[in-house]
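FYI - complex with calcium ion, inputs then prediction.
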Amino acid sequence: MSLSVVILAAGKGTRMRSSLPKVLHPVAHKPMVGHVIDSARQLGASNIYVVYGFGGEALKEAVTGDDLTFVEQVEQLGTGHAVDQASPFLKDDENVLVLYGDVPLTKVSTLESLLAVKPDNGMGLLTVHLANPTGYGRIVREEINGQQQVVGIIEQKDASPEQLKINEANTGILLANGGDLKRWLSNLSSDNAQGEYYLTDIIASAHSEGKVIATAYPETEVEVEGANNRVQLAQLERAYQARIAEELMIAGASLRDPARIDVRGNLTTGTEVSIDVNCIFEGNVTIANNAVIGANCIIINSTIGENAVIKPNTIIEDAVIEADCSVGPFARIRPGSVMKQDSHVGNFVEMKNTTFGVGSKAGHLSYLGNAEIGSKVNIGAGTITCNYDGVNKSTTTIGDNAFIGSNSSLVAPVTIGASATTGAGSVITKEVEDSHLGLGRAKQRNVSGWNRPVKKS
Ligand code: UD1
Ligand code: CA
């Protein structure tokens, strides 16, 4: 049977105190509803219906895909009414899974177990046993054929004192055949304590038709928790980060403190990778075997090669760091940069749009922008590529084995040949041919009998 997913996302989220629709508040830089959509896709859903109420435009901008259909729920008349907005799209002979846009951490494996328990002609319901189920709908069971079968869900506000003692709670996540679901939704009434069309009432309908309602359970409670305010959002963020940290460690990475790493995207690590505290990884980051990441690094959409050492307080973005390189401390490698194998960049070096050749070194205090730098080049401290005239960016080309004296200003476009040298403090505006020494500085002259200025009393 094919699968469609209906994601409820119509709540305004007043308690977020935000102009952003609640489901667009992020966990790990991704809107909560984006996580839910990811899960739906991993389950192989052919269609995903997002039921929205507020901020439809913002929602359509934030989450996209051919498989998404946005369905407006003009008035929020209850969860049953919300799902019913998708009814015109649902096929009779498909599985329909209901998820919630503000419940981002449900594991795909949990949803798979729900798909697995549902009888072809019955329903699946995800429930959770809670020490304190206050506020949740309670799962009502009765003994049928010697088994405690689900026969209904009773909302907190409609429950009797006896029912309030039930600690099996409704997560809201359920699975039904499209045809059944549409029939049950069309028969809902709002005759209850909250005057709402409760999705939960379909359970009693299913039972009265003799359908079996099978249950599945999440591994942990956080999988079915939603975020109504920023405190709960921060708790989900921490839970998400703890889960990712655990996955990284299981995959063979060493984290000095799993509570002090933030992954906002996809981080892939090889074996024997070690990551010190307070690092942030964004977008797609790959770290190869034996690489070491020091404390306080920020690495965005980049690749770190085998045995590379990224020293503390380094920022790397849209860059490739090949094997055996060392970078930092306090280096900034900006977009379009490639550090070839075994190259070295030290403190306060900024690199942008630069290829830095095999075995080359820039140990201290440099700006290298729009540069093509060969292998075994030494860039002296304080060297600057003057790549920008206020309008145009120009290229600096440096050949293999060149030695750039400290505090050189390389005024681009300019070429320094292979094995060429520039004198310290030079302003280089013209090509330096291979193996030549380029000097571009005033000659020193020493003045005798020079008196230093004295302070006036
Ligand atoms: C619902 C369940 C309850 C369950 C609990 C789990 C019902 C009647 N009750 O209660 O059994 O234990 O979730 O958290 O289903 N929404 C819409 N449109 C609406 C109403 C709600 O999109 O008209 C969305 C909300 O934005 C929210 C979700 O549905 O994301 C749940 O709605 P909410 O009102 O919070 O339901 P609960 O009272 O918590
Ligand atoms: Ca709720």
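The chain has two domains: 3-224, 230-438. The chain has a mean pLDDT of 97.
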